C-alpha cells in the first residue's frame, strides 16, 4: 500500500534489493511513492520482491545480473530509464559477507569475492548512473558499516571494503555537488539479516553473542530501521545533506566494553515495523559461482 509521498515521482535503483536490508529499502521506497528497480543476482528473490510491491499497489521491476560487471551495470541503469524515464536515486546496497576468519587463515577467494561485489559493483553502478543523476539532480546512498568505521575482528578484510565505501562516498559528495548530486552513506551496525545469525551466515554463536553484548541497545537492528534512514537521505528532506555517514548501529561504534548486558530485557525486543519482509534471512553468505 502506498502510504506516503516522500519519494513521489522518484525513480530508484536498489542494488541487492532481493534480500535483507535491500528488500526493506525497496518496500519502504515503494510505499513512499517511488518507482523501484529491484536489482540483484539471478538467484536472488528480486522478482518476488517486485511482485510483492506491485501486489500492494506500488511500482517496481526486477533486474537480474552481476552488477560488478560493466555490461550488467549499464543494462540496469538503462532498464530504469527505459521503464520509468529517468533515474533519481541510486542505492548501492549490494554486498557479500562470505567468510569469518583470522587473517592468517583468511582465504584469497573470499577476499577477491568481496572486492568484486562490495567495491566494483558500487564503483560501476555509481559511474554509470551519474550522467542520469546529473539530469535529475539526484542522489546516491551507499552501504557502509560499523566495520568500516571501527574495523571488525575475524573479518578485517570485510571492514576494509566498507572503509573504502566511507571514503569513496565523501570524495563523490565533494566532486558531484557541482552537478547537484548528493552522496551519502548509511552505516548499519548488527542487523537482523542472514549475515548476523550463526544458522544462516559465517558467524559462530560466540561471535553473535559478543556482537550483541557490544551493542548498547542489546539487540540487532531490523532491516526496516535501516531503510527508514535511507528514506530520509533519499528524500528532499535531506536536501542540504551530502558527504554524511549516518550510523544506524544501536550505538555499537561509540560503546566501550560489553554494554549490551546492561540493557534491560524489556528493551531487547525488535520493533514490529510495518513492512512485510519475507526475504530478510535469504541473503548472500557464501561464495557462489
Ligand atoms: N547485516 C548487517 O549486519 C550489516 C551490517 C553492516 C552493513 N551491512 C551492509 O548492508 C548491505 C546489505 O546487507 P544484508 O545484511 O542485507 O545482506 P544480504 O546478503 O541479505 O543482501 C545483499 C544482497 O546483495 C546481492 N549482491 C551482492 N553482490 C551483488 C552483485 N555483484 N550483483 C548483484 N547483486 C549482488 C546479494 O546477492 C544479496 O541479495 C551490505 O552492503 C552490507 O555490507 C549489513
UniProtKB/TrEMBL annotation:
InterPro entries linked: NAD(P)-bd_dom_sf (IPR036291), Sc_DH/Rdtase_CS (IPR020904), SDR_fam (IPR002347)
Region (Disordered): 259-289
Biased composition (Basic and acidic residues): 266-289
GO molecular function annotations of the record: oxidoreductase activity, acting on the CH-OH group of donors, NAD or NADP as acceptor
CDD domains: SDR_c
UniProt-listed SUPFAM superfamilies: NAD(P)-binding Rossmann-fold domains
A Pfam match: adh_short_C2
Record-stated family: Belongs to the short-chain dehydrogenases/reductases (SDR) family.
Protein name: SDR family oxidoreductase
Amino acid at each position: 500500500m502506498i502510504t506516503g509521498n516522500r519519494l513521489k515521482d522518484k525513480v530508484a535503483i536498489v542494488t541487492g534489493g532481493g534480500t535483507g536490508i535491500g528488500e526493506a529499502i525497496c518496500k519502504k521506497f515503494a510505499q513512499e511513492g517511488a518507482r523501484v528497480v529491484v536489482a540483484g543476482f539471478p538467484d536472488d528473490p528480486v522478482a518476488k520482491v517486485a511482485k510483492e510491491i506491485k501486489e500492494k499497489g506500488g511500482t517496481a521491476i526486477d533486474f537480474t545480473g552481476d552488477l560488478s560487471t560493466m555490461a550488467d551495470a549499464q543494462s540496469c541503469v538503462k532498464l530504469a530509464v527505459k521503464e520509468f524515464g529517468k533515474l533519481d536515486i541510486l542505492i548501492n546496497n549490494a554486498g557479500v559477507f562470505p567468510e569469518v576468519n583470522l587473517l592468517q587463515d583468511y582465504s584469497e577467494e573470499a577476499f577477491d569475492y568481496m572486492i568484486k561485489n562490495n567495491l566494483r559493483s558500487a564503483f560501476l553502478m555509481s559511474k554509470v548512473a551519474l550522467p542520469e543523476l546529473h539530469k535529475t539532480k539526484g542522489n546516491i546512498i551507499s552501504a557502509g558499516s560499523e566495520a568500516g568505521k571501527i574495523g571488525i575482528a575475524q573479518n578485517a578484510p570485510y571492514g576494509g571494503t566498507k572503509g573504502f565505501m566511507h571514503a569513496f562516498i565523501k570524495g563523490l559528495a565533494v566532486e558531484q555537488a557541482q552537478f547537484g548530486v548528493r552522496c551519502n552513506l548509511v552505516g548499519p551496525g548488527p542487523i537482523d539479516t542472514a549475515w548476523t545469525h550463526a544458522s544462516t551466515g559465517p558467524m559462530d554463536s560466540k561471535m553473535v553473542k559478543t556482537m550483541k553484548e557490544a551493542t548498547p541497545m542489546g539487540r540487532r537492528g531490523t532491516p526496516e530501521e535501516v531503510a527508514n534512514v535511507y528514506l530520509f537521505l533519499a528524500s528532499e528532506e535531506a536536501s542540504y545533506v551530502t558527504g554524511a555517514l549516518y550510523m544506524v548501529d544501536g550505538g555499537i561504534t561509540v560503546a566501550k566494553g560489553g554494554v549490551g548486558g546492561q540493557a534491560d530485557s524489556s528493551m531487547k525486543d525488535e520493533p514490529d515495523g510495518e513492512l512485510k519482509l519475507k526475504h530478510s534471512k535469504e541473503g548472500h553468505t557464501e561464495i557462489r559461482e
